[in-house]
Amino acid sequence: MEDVIVVGGSFAGLSAAMYLARARRRLLVADSGHPRNRYSVRSHGVLALDGREGSEILRSARAQLLEYSTGDLADARVERVIRREHPLSFEVSTSEGQRFASRRLILATGLVDQRPGIPGLEERWGKSVFHCPYCDGYEFGGAPIGVLATVPLSVHFAEIVADWGDVTLFTNGSIAVDAAGRAGLRRRGVRLEEGVVTALEGGSNGGLELVRLEGGGTVPIRALFIATLFQQAAPFAQDLGCELTEHPRGPLVRTDESKRTTVDGVYAAGDMARPTHSIPSAIADGATAGTSAHQSLVVETTDP
Asked: What CATH number has the domain spanning 2-112+230-299?
């Protein structure tokens, strides 16, 4: 039996695993190899690693984890997680028929972005269409930038993005902007376009040149930011009975400051349990979850 199983081997999961391995605890990371940021060409804002490919960072992290004798990886898609009460333990089953058991469980399965079905958007996701200006806005600074509305919060999002370029907010029929919102946009120099977006157009390499509107009008745009709606990438937190909290963009797993969920022995780290999403935030969450899970094992009075 492992001390801890980590479900999800991206930045949060591997960070948690690294701290557990350094605590000399037996652990397994189970991961299907589909991180949320796999569409991004480069990862920015990561201390000392700015501009490196996310996949390269993950490969290095996996290799470093395996240098620890107590750390292991399973390249497998987890299908089911069961919690047993007496003694407290968890059983994890994969699509390949493998079964693993542990005393603690860390979930780091992330989120799935619900991207609008606009022609031209999918092939530009991670290249010229993004969800995080802090991660990808600098490279387009000063250029015409668009924000595509999904929820009322998109008005404030457009005000934030205005620090990176000359911004147009496309409501796309998704929201109505009230007088206070319009005043705020004017203060930030954000133009408001209330037509329906019908297509994104540009070069074949994933670049963006213009947003086409219903009726034939176009707006020159170099990059487009979307505060995407999202959903949990895996159902394990719900299956185990963990409480969720409703964010305007989608459900998040409720955790305390130690990344403990509302279910004893279960921790959640990374995008699935926080409203703001970035690699550094995920790494920090993973470190917190890993050390918290370790400390819970230390104070446990009864071994399985």
From this structure: 3.50.50.60
| Cβ–Cβ < 8 Å for 136, 277 | no
Mean pLDDT, all residues of the chain? 95
Task: Write the single-letter amino acid at 132.
Answer: C
Q: Domain boundaries in the chain?
A: 2-112+230-299, 116-226
- 299 three-class SS: helix
The dihedral of CA 38, 40, 41, 47: what is its sign?
A: negative
CA 263 to chain centre: 22
| pLDDT, position 203 | 83
Closest by CA to 247, choosing from 135, 151, 125, is 151
CA terminus-to-terminus distance, the chain: 9
C-alpha closest to that of 286 among 296, 298, 274? 274
In order of 11, 185, 258, 274, the CA distances from 288 in angstroms are 13, 38, 6, 13
